[in-house]
Amino acid sequence: MHYNAGDTAWVLVSAALVLFMTPGLAFFYGGMVRSKNVLGMLMQNFATMAVVSLIWVFGAYSLAFGPDWGGFGLVGTLHFFGLAHSSQPVPGYTGAISQHIPPLAFVVFQMTFAIITPALITGSIADRVRFGPFLLFVALWSVLVYAPIAHWAFDPHGWLYRMGVEDFAGGTVVEINAGAAGLAIATVVGRRRGWPRSPMPPHNVPLTLMGAGILWFGWFGFNAGSALGANNLAAHAFINTNTAGAAGLLGWIAVEKLRGGKSTTLGAVSGAVAGLVAITPSCGFVDAVGAGVIGVAAGVVCSLAVSAKFRLGVDDSLDVGGVHLIGGVVGTLLIGLLGTMATNGSNGFFYGGGLGLLGRQGLAVLASGAFSFAMTWVIAKAIDKSVGLRMAPEDEFEGMDTALHAESAYDFGGSFLRSLGGGSMSNAQ
Residue 419, Cβ neighbours under 10 Å: how many? Predict the structure, then answer.
């Protein structure tokens, strides 16, 4: 089979960009927790890269993109277990959607999606989960939750894909999936001690800002790379991604200004992420005007949604539900209104397409969200009852960094001693 060199290069570069998003997410989350937990957050995200990389090669990829099991569109077989038969074309990608890249390029590109999705969940359970049981959760969740939903929406044999649901880069598979899962596991492990009475402000907003910048940068690979080629569709996805991120930032800080009189840095980066989340499913199906509308809508709606956790009593620590679940819902549903054949896919309601597409998008939202929440709750509950997910009270008080990893992100004591000794290590000793 002939492979297009330009398409292959773009997909491989995009895979590297998406992989870089997970360290970016680690910094984004790390800056928002208290200083005693920053290394714990970084460790969870980096370890997720390792766990999912192996799980993906030895089974999860085949379950997501292998030949459909039973013809029901629910999950693939283990035909590609251990990347066996890796030279065979990815099943279902024929005709107009034929791939012009090596199958292994597709494997590694999709692997990076599988990595960042459970990494997103760490924001819901920040500050209070044991490391070993968390890794067990990631392994089970990748096989039992991520792989099936990826098969539903990304694989041409999946039941959502066959129904005509449009999800260009992961509104259901990544955003809604992670957001619903985050809320589920947060209900299992319970609230942080002292929440919501005690203030728990971000310890390093510049670190969060740097992480958000890496995420924005990597998101171009996430979305434009999903065109699976260096083509006009990739260019549409690229400009739509940037447009929505910018619009989301402005929408969020406008709400902040109107509600509290101040626009915050944390609000700006949260708004940008909300806009990027919402455009993820829609970037290949809307025009630039639609991207702007989706970005603003996500920034406004998500900024209002993050306060719901206080009314619900669910300690979604870093607002994974409020940003990723709600942003994913906004972006997925608005395809039904703003989708246009002039870009790709089907016309939405505002472009003369009727309400059929909106209905299909709504079904995808409900199915992926409900399945993810229910299965995540079961997995988390089983782990919690068997080996325990929650840190001991004394360890939680001490902090994840020293209690779980015997390290500290900031050497406050050493710096103080060195300052007393005039900066000389020999004096400090």
Answer: 10
